[in-house]
Q: What sequence folds into this?
């Protein structure tokens, strides 16, 4: 009888174990993790706003906090300074704080406010524009700031419950819940995109704030949303914790992020190319160009090679490779498996930093590719790319690379060009005909970018 | 002895497990129980159009709570139950400052009604669900958590909202937000949004405030709030810096009514109310709550902080219009 009781007891305990939820599970977690979440106010002396904010879902509009209405009647006590609001999270007891780069961009005064309303000045230790992360240090001798830990974001599962805490529209300490809706999302900000997607409400002001799992560990940093009007539509994006940790460590150690560089122009392997090469799948990427003197060149990678694997990891999409290369340690060797003339060959490349890439490119100049026009390379829209970039449009051409000289115009890698000078563009051939059929110096591009419509004027 | 202790322990485990653990049907079961007390409020002549809101029955003789903005200017009203029965209803009274209205169903019957939770003990992160008629979709159920407390938007005269990430859309107005005891924890009233639809930031009037307003409405026919002629807000970081304050405690005057006791006594916007009748004031919510218990015509001692000095003035309370 006693034994039976013990068995029942252990059964009951296992039923009410760590995985069971009750109505206060999140409330209890919030009590313990909220003190590590901070509000960030970044002020800037420059009053002019650049155009590049307009397409950012977390644009400067966010500073128009709904709560500002509250003080409408008393202009006397209202600040006139330009500022951004966002969120952040404390990751060390001596006050290192993670936030988004776009929150603190261009600011010359940063204030971090804790849940107990105490606030501190903070400075930028380092930032990385490509991943949109910034590392701040609270200027204080305090060594007992409340800290939270990182989760292993590789184990975050679609459907798993998550909690966002932040400062949407200035509503500080706002907690919202949802699940992980997707993984490895590329939303077209740059080739390194690898977001976690969540349906927890993420709104302007949540930027830079943490997404937690139910262990109370950081699973991501809330960074962007898909939205038609700027508010949450249940599609939020967070930089996965593992990426955050990699970047933050580099920012802490060196104040900047160094990414690996291989030196190839890759192209999507579409079905026709795959069948021409007698391949059964479209896995892998086609090498369209190799930069002279680059690690790829030195490893004897050639135009027309199909890269099947990088350090034994199979390449399943065009966007896998740059991410893998970027994460590779500088000056370490990478094994690149290519298919050439029906034969699999392993080549070894010594990965250098993208900083070195700029030197090589400057010496060699930029090569013109078959599908390269003006100052950028384009490719036809395939089902794979549509899936990868979450593109809803049926036709258009995708920008795969933008020359340095062309980066002054509002065109980015991942942009979908749908019109040139108000003529519809469905294929690379359409694009070529329009470009070659006119002598106009300036051209108007109609671009779709992460759900937004963008008009860009380019000059040739 | 040992065995008895063990059995008791098991019983405790079982009870604690049953009382708060969730399963996939926890909310389903609560909804079954609560849906009959939630109504769709329709302004006659606008049936099926945008004039639809929500409401909740709070007494068996058919008193219904909804938002004032949902029934404002209505010639006649109808409420529709989940069993499809439709009744005429009239606005008994309302309070514009909180945006609450009390309706009475015209037919005499025993109606299903809900109980009030104590909203002061609600926790951020606690699970909640809303029932209502967003876009006319009757008895829609949406779930979320309490995202924040004591929120002010500046759009209503008197506010102390609970914030939720449960989807609150047009048509949810006036409908109930429930906790997992199945008690009414708030009346869904507003939405921070750029398009009208839910952005996951819904605002509900907390049940304790609803209760206080209803009691006053039922006893006196209207809510008579006493005031010294100011509107106050919490002190945020900016205000603190600009006014050179040493703490966030107090309620800052952001609006001053002309010819009011406060303006006549020389109170100016930017003054911070730190004491009321000898009691310390830490927030605007606390100030408002205390004013709610004050009577028109009586006097109050107000401690005002200006330029680092607190001075106390005695003011008459007038009716807040």
A:
């Amino acid at each position: 009888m006693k034994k039976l009781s013990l068995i029942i007891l252990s059964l009951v305990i296992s039923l009410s174990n760590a995985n069971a939820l009750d109505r206060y599970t999140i409330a209890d977690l919030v009590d313990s993790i909220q003190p590590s979440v901070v509000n960030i106010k970044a002020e800037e002396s420059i009053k002019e706003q650049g155009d590049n904010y307009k397409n950012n879902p977390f644009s400067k509009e966010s500073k128009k906090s709904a709560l500002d209405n509250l003080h409408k009647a008393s202009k006397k006590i209202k600040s006139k300074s330009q500022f951004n609001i966002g969120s952040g999270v404390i990751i060390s007891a001596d006050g290192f704080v993670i936030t988004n780069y776009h929150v603190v961009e261009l600011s010359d005064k940063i204030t971090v406010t804790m849940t107990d309303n105490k606030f501190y000045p903070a400075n930028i230790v380092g930032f990385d524009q490509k991943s949109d992360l910034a590392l701040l240090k609270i200027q204080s001798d305090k060594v007992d700031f409340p800290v939270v830990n990182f989760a292993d974001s590789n184990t975050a599962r679609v459907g798993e419950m998550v909690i966002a805490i932040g400062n949407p529209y200035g509503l500080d300490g706002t907690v919202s819940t949802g699940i992980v809706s997707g993984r490895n999302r590329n939303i077209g900000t740059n080739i390194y995109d690898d977001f976690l997607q969540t349906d927890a409400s993420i709104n302007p002001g949540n930027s830079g704030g943490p997404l937690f799992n139910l262990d109370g560990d950081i699973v991501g940093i809330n960074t962007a949303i898909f939205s038609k009007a700027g508010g949450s539509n249940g599609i939020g994006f967070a930089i996965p914790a593992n990426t955050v940790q990699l970047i933050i460590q580099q920012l802490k150690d060196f104040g900047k992020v160094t990414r690996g560089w291989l030196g190839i122009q890759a192209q999507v392997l579409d079905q026709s190319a795959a069948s021409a090469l007698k391949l059964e799948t479209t896995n892998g990427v086609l090498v369209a160009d190799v930069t002279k003197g680059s690690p790829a060149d030195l490893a004897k990678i050639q135009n027309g090679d199909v890269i099947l694997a990088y350090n034994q990891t199979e390449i399943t999409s065009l966007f896998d490779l740059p991410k893998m290369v970027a994460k590779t340690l500088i000056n370490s060797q990478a094994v690149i498996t290519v298919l050439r003339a029906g034969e699999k060959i392993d080549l070894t490349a010594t990965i250098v930093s993208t900083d070195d890439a700029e030197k090589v490119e400057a010496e060699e100049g930029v090569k013109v590719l078959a599908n390269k026009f003006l100052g950028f390379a384009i490719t036809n829209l395939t089902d794979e790319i549509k899936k990868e970039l979450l593109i809803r449009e049926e036709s258009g051409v995708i920008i795969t690379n933008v020359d340095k000289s062309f980066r002054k115009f509002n065109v980015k890698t991942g942009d979908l060009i749908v019109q040139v000078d108000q003529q519809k563009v469905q294929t690379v051939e359409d694009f070529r005909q329009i470009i070659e059929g006119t002598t106009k110096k300036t051209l108007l591009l109609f671009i779709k970018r992460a759900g937004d419509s963008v008009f860009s004027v380019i000059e040739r | 002895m040992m065995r008895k202790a063990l059995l008791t322990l098991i019983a405790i485990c079982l009870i604690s497990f049953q009382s708060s653990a969730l399963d996939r049907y926890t909310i389903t079961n609560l909804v079954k129980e609560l849906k009959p007390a939630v109504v769709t409020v329709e302004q006659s002549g606008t049936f099926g159009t945008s004039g639809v809101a929500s409401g909740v029955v709070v007494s068996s003789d058919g008193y219904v709570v909804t938002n004032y903005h949902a029934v404002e200017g209505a010639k006649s009203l109808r409420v529709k139950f989940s069993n499809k029965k439709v009744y005429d209803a009239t606005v008994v009274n309302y309070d514009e400052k909180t945006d609450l209205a009390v309706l009475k169903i015209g037919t005499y019957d025993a109606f299903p009604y809900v109980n009030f939770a104590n909203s002061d003990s609600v926790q951020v992160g606690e699970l909640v669900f809303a029932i209502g008629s967003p876009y006319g979709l009757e008895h829609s159920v949406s779930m979320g958590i309490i995202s924040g407390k004591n929120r002010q938007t500046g759009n209503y005269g008197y506010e102390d909202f609970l914030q939720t990430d449960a989807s609150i859309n047009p048509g949810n107005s006036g409908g109930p937000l429930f906790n997992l005891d199945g008690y009414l924890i708030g009346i869904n009233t507003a939405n921070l949004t750029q398009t009208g639809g839910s952005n996951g930031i819904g605002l509900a009037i907390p049940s304790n405030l609803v209760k206080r307003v209803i009691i006053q409405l039922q006893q006196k026919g209207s809510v008579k709030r006493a005031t010294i002629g100011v509107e106050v807000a919490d002190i945020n970081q900016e205000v603190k810096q600009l006014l050179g304050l040493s703490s966030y405690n107090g309620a800052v005057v952001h609006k001053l009514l002309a010819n009011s006791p406060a303006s006549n006594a020389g109170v100016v916007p930017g003054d911070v109310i730190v004491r009321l009748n000898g009691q310390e004031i830490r927030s605007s919510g606390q100030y408002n709550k205390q004013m709610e218990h004050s009577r028109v015509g009586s006097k109050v001692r107000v401690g005002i902080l200006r330029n680092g000095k607190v001075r106390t003035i005695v003011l008459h309370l007038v009716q807040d219009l």
